[in-house]
Specification:
Protein name: Peptide deformylase
Number of strands: 0
Number of helices: 1
Helix content: 25-40%
Structural class: mainly alpha
Order of helices and strands: H
InterPro entries: Peptide_deformylase_sf
Largest sheet: none
Shape: flat
Organism: Streptomyces sp. SID7499
Length: 35
């Protein structure tokens, strides 16, 4: 897959509830926290 070369990531292709849940989980992940 070469989407990253075009500036796209996996979550760009998600839609609807799947996208909402995925992005929410990513924001809540320990590795996403500042500090």
């Amino acid at each position: 897959e070469c989407d990253h070369l075009e500036g796209r990531v996996y979550t760009d292709r998600l839609t609807g509830l799947r996208r909402t849940r995925t992005l929410r989980a990513a924001r809540r992940a320990p590795w996403a926290r500042k500090g």
